[in-house]
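Data availability (excerpt). The following record was deposited with the supplementary files.
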Amino acid sequence: MTSTAARLLAGSFRSFTPSRATFALNRASSHRSPHQESPVAQSAMASFGPEPPPAKKAKENSWDKNGDTFNKVASSAAAERNRQPIADVVVPLLAHLDCGLVVELACGTGQHAAHVAPALPNLTWLPTDLTDESFDSVVHHTRGLENVLEPGVLDASDDAWPDRFHGSWEPPVAVLAVNLTHISPWQATVGAVRGSAKLLEDTTNGLLMIYGPFKRGGEHTSEGNATFDASLRARDPAWGCRDVEAVDALGSAHGFVTEEVREMPANNLMLTMRRRAKIEPAE
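Predicted structure:
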């Protein structure tokens, strides 16, 4: 079961003091629009300090005229549609574990944490995002869940983010990144994979799971994805659907083996990467 210490952490993540953890949460500036479903496409952990100012509330009950501003205390339609297919991949991979920390990058509205964490009661779930824009929604969706910590600000492009976990949490066992790679610069994906490798380097069979729309062999998997990719690049030339082969090669370069690339609904893919065991030098 999740340790007593981790249970005490639940609901108090942003209010930790340095005596309870070795790092502090820092606000991070975004390289993408703060109003996407996952405003933290570059997710990764920063450091402990004063609680960030409350996020501004979006207009109640809908999107604005440009379709960019989401009601942060409501729900994302895309997350609602995709949460069960994502859970169908994640839960069987982690259900056998007796304890451990799952770090979610780009947590968005918190609907994935709210849906998956109850199915993994032995694990502690930490939702993170690049900014706190959607944290009201995350807290709303995960209220009452003992194994979900309050969300924290985390920037995946920060090389030091995994260092701040050491000695402060249960052993990390997995990292989940949903809709991170295409709504952020490539450097965010590099940092997420590199940081996850460092975070999981002492974990037996640690997992990195990356979900989203990808290209295969340099080609889009559907006409809809091609249109979506063009719209992303029109907003920011640094965004866009990545080649799944490039992400696989990135993982391999940082000690991961891609076990599966699963086709998901709506022309998305889920990459499941397992951290190779660290080889101790011969005496």
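Summary of structural features: The chain has one domain: 4-55+62-275.
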